[in-house]
Amino acid sequence: MNWEQIPLGPLQTNCYIIANKEKKCLIFDPGEEGSKLIRHLEQRKLTPLAILLTHAHFDHIGAVDDIRNRYHIPVYLHEQEKGWLMDPALNGSQFFMMGPIKVNPADHVINGEGKMEVGDFSFEVFATPGHSPGSVSYYFEDGFVVSGDALFQGSIGRTDLPGGNHEVLIKSIHEKLLVLPEETQVLPGHGPTTTIESEMDSNPFLNGF
């Protein structure tokens, strides 16, 4: 299994493609530039099975319908944010100059934690709220976790948007992410990848907790 990081849109939100040897793939957070992402998938001869969202902020959802409609695949999102896709005030697009973003409802809502399977892919879902109330992280035993905007290299997600809570975010990171094997690669929603070990050692927002 391998992963690719593709920054998309004006905020360079990281979309991730997780693919297996059979060229099947999962798509995480297709934030913008749907045509660019489709071209990439076609060039790589990949067959998407699903779209999984770490949360429903506008910069993570802008190309959801482009990809869903092109490949006729389901979208997964945590139940606490199931109404955000259609609401520019909740997904935050109302407050930015690019204009309101509305996306059709998710096909499946995630309402718990634990093992999840999509096709031949198996992974774990962790609730990691704080940046937003329905933020989740997806952990693959191959050694990586898609953390959305919870944890970044040397930083953490902002908590000044609707439903954000700094204390809740710190608790999520410590209880759900920092307990993973230290060599686990962290695939964040923005910026470069990192590891659990690096963030435990040097992230200024986590030291001394």
Describe what is shown at a glance:
With 209 residues, the protein is of the alpha/beta class. The chain contains five helices and 14 strands.
Order of strands across the widest beta sheet? 1-2-3-4-5-6
Category from helices, strands and their pairing: alpha/beta
Helix content: 10-25%
Cα radius of gyration in angstroms: 16 Å
Euclidean distance between termini CA atoms:
34 Å
Q: What is the chains' assembly state?
A: single chain
Mind telling me the CATH superfamily name? Answer: Ribonuclease Z/Hydroxyacylglutathione hydrolase-like
Number of separate strands: 14
Give the DSSP E fraction (strand runs of 2 or more residues). 25-35%
Summarize the biggest pleated sheet: 6 strands, mixed
Q: What's the helix-strand series?
A: EEEHEHEHEEEEEEEHEEH
* Top-tier CATH class: Alpha Beta
CATH architecture: 4-Layer Sandwich
Report low-confidence residues grouped into runs of 5 or more: none
> What is the overall number of helices?
5
- Tell me the overall shape: globular
Q: Average pLDDT, to the nearest integer?
A: 96
**How many structural domains?**
1
Cofactor: Zn(2+)
Domain Metallo-beta-lactamase: 12-190
Pfam families: Lactamase_B
Keywords: Hydrolase, Metal-binding, Zinc
